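Lay summary

Proteins are chains of building blocks that fold into shapes. Our project writes down both the chain and a compact code for its shape. Here are two examples, one after the other.
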Amino acid sequence: MPVSRRFVALGLPVLLGGCVSARPAPMAYTAARRASLEPQYYDMYAELDDEPFPVPAVDIDGIDPRYLRQPVAYTGPERPGTIVINPNQKFLYLVQDGGRAMRYGVGVGREGFGWHGNATIKRKAEWPTWTPPSTMIMRQPELEEYASGMPGGPDNPLGARAMYLYQGDRDTLYRIHGTIEPQTIGTRVSSGCIRLINQDVIDLYRRVSTGTRVVVLSGGGGGEGDEFS
């Protein structure tokens, strides 16, 4: 049984370094809301066939349209190239020139597990390895086989890409990463990590480099203009 499905079957959370996944109740959207989606979104979240492992198409009819990738107005003070994360709104912004940003829906830390502050992307990885912490292996001895790391792949909880957040030379243990559970986007589900739909994290990964500044807001403050929702 794949590792993620095994955890669900046992009723146990999936721990991703500093990230714990708790599956939320499924959301329902009206037929009218689904019909309002522009055709481009179905292409944007279609199956990717140019990756080392399968990236299946996303059932975007089950995701609030606000959380689909889209360009928006942005009026915050951050310089272009900065990533700004608003945990309250479950949005990640990549600030661009001309008062614009690319906005992505994200899953964020559960109540009591959030964090905020400034960080820097110091490492990036495609199809990253997942290594359960020793404390988790003590609680779940069956994970001993992954003590040296679970290789990247379609069942790896970190998804297709990971960007590792540091403060100075200290690894915060928080990541911006993909997910094999796209239905968790727009929810509070982790222990602080920021997760994106795999198609979105691949897009973001291509746009940023190591050294990118990341700002995680502490309150409801945004920076977006009239399109803020």
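And here is the second example, written the same way.
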Amino acid sequence: MSNTNITLLTSLIIILIGYFLKKYQVIKETEGKVLSKVVLYVTFPALIFDTVSDLEIRYALVFLPFIPLAFCLLLFSICYVLFRNQPATIKGVLFMAATGFNIGLFAYPIIEAIWGKEGLQYIAMYDLGNAFAVLGLSYSLGSAFSPQRTGSKRIDGVYILKKLVRSVPLVSYVVALLFNIMGLSFPFLINNVIGAVARANMAMVLLLLGIYLNFRLDKTFIKQLYSILFVKFGLALLIGITLFYILPFDKLYRTIVLIALILPVGLTVIPFSDEFGYNTRFAGAIANISILISFVLMWGLIMVFNLA
């Protein structure tokens, strides 16, 4: 068995451990929120600093943040045409699901295990654009189409800006890039602490994915659920494979772009749906099923295109 298959199987087993810990109530899903905060506020920012602060800035990297933004805008445009007449309680969920990827709580540990530090550096730059798509575009769409919204109520741009500024991962990206550009570094001891905390991210994220997995589906909206996933992953495969062959960059760069485009729906669709009065069970179903689809597609693409 190849190292890649072993890595993916290992990741799957850790996810399943998290799932069965929740299933048999060793850990409750509500307790998973504590672990989620540890990841978002501690291990993930540490991994960002460890990855981005010594990144070799090249002109090719500048394009990466714009790829998720462009893809999300295109996907939203298609979804708006397809789903504009859907019920108010799910229409915004469909639009938010089209605008963002689950990178920090899905992709990082797998990419780190398969492609190492260089792969992490590429996905980190991609995730910089994704952060703006999720916290800016997705949140704005959720607000704009909310069933709680009155006709005269405007989108609160100041509030959205505050969400961006208060996003610990996004701030970590910006600060790490500034450190990189200015040639700054932390003292040796702090660097060691950051590195140690960053290494804990992989296992914690995979366990968290398992804890959040939920296979209960609301059959009322099963057609819409499969429709959005078919459109999202179909377009992602079409654009991802096209870019893999036409981008004038090295194979790992093109590989990360291809893999990044088939990543799951961002988990923020769930809290955003709750905030704006959408059907949160529908949002959770989209997020969970997209994780399974993404994992299978990732594995298949790696094997078919010999990406590892």
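What can we say about the second shape? The chain has a mean pLDDT of 89.
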